[in-house]
């Protein structure tokens, strides 16, 4: 597996993969208003907008396996998505670890928002040492420039030990 910064050439593959993974994790767990606002166009617009802070995972042949987007808030993992055919093989773990290493030394902790109903993702984060630090409302952006309030859990991982280990 190769991890590298996303490039313009990745965008046509990135947006559909991200959309399919987002639906897997969020359909039925977020307000209908957000589902309505997140058609294919949303992922095309946001994949382009966040390209500079996106890391992709590919196999040795260049097949896109997953992606992680950092920021814009300090220490935030905005999105993590692994293609359905590549799950359970450590791709998500490698991408999450790359984000933790990137933030270590810059931020006390890494954090992200996960919807309570996304049980698989919550299990995954907890396995990787992240903890539920409480409920919050996340202003989820839409491609129209607005936001939709979404009840989420704030998961975080202290990065102190990681910073010392570097
Ligand atoms: C959540 C997601 C990113 C995980 O990616 P992944 O590549 O499958 O992750 P990994 O292969 O590193 O780990 C997957 C599984 O192995 C578990 N795992 C990994 N290493 C393990 C180990 N050594 N021992 C036991 N369990 C282990 C994880 O907890 C997880 O368990 P599950 O799938 O049985 O629930 C992926 O499922 C996904 O893209 N989901 C849809 C999008 C989504 O929900 N994103 C998160 C939004 S907040």
Descriptive account of the structure:
The structure is a single chain. This protein has 166 residues and is of the alpha+beta class. It has one domain: Aminopeptidase. It contains 6 helices and 7 strands. The strands form 2 sheets. A 4-stranded antiparallel beta sheet has the order 1-2-3-4, sandwiched between helices. It has a 3-stranded antiparallel beta sheet with strand order 5-7-6. The longest helix has 16 residues, at 11-26. The model has no long low-confidence stretch (mean pLDDT 94). Coenzyme A (COA) is lined by residues 21, 24-25, 80-82, 87-93, 114, 118, 120-121, 123-124, 127.
Give the secondary structure arrangement, pairings included.
Layout: E1 2-5, H1 11-26, H2 32-37, H3 40-49, E2 54-58, E3 64-70, E4 77-82, H4 91-103, E5 109-114, H5 119-127, E6 131-141, E7 147-158, H6 160-165
Helix pairs in contact: 1-3
This protein binds coenzyme A.
Coenzyme A is lined by residues 21, 24-25, 80-82, 87-93, 114, 118, 120-121, 123-124, 127.
Strand-residue fraction?
25-35%
The tally of beta strands, per DSSP, is: 7
According to CATH, the fold-level topology is: Aminopeptidase
Alpha carbon gyration radius: 15 Å
Residues in helices, as a percent range: 25-40%
List segments where confidence is low: pLDDT < 50 over at least 5 consecutive residues: none
Number of domains: 1
* CATH architectural name: 3-Layer(aba) Sandwich
Question: Order of SSEs, N→C?
Answer: EHHHEEEHEHEEH
Task: Describe the main β-sheet briefly.
Answer: 4 strands, antiparallel
In DSSP terms (H or I, runs of 4 or more residues), the helix count works out at 6
Q: CATH superfamily assignment?
A: Gcn5-related N-acetyltransferase (GNAT)
What structural category do the secondary elements indicate?
Answer: alpha+beta
Mean pLDDT: 94
Strand sequence of the main sheet, in spatial order? 1-2-3-4
For the termini, the CA-CA separation is 22 Å
CATH class category label: Alpha Beta
Q: Choose one word for the global shape.
A: globular
Q: Can you list the ligands bound to this structure? A: coenzyme A
């Amino acid at each position: 597996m190769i991890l590298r910064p996303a490039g313009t050439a990745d965008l046509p593959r990135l947006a559909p993969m991200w959309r399919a993974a987002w639906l897997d994790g969020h359909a039925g767990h977020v307000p209908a208003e957000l589902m309505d606002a997140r058609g294919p166009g949303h992922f095309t617009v946001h994949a382009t907008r966040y390209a500079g802070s996106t890391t992709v995972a590919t196999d040795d042949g260049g097949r896109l396996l997953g992606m992680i987007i950092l920021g814009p808030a300090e220490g935030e993992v905005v999105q993590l998505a692994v293609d359905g055919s590549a799950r359970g093989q450590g791709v998500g773990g490698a991408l999450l670890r790359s984000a933790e290493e990137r933030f270590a030394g810059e931020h006390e902790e890494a954090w992200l928002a996960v919807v309570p109903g996304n049980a698989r993702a919550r299990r995954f984060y907890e396995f990787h040492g992240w903890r539920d630090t409480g409920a919050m409302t996340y202003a989820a952006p839409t491609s129209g420039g607005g936001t939709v309030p979404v009840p989420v859990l704030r998961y975080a991982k202290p990065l102190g030990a990681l910073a010392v280990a570097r």
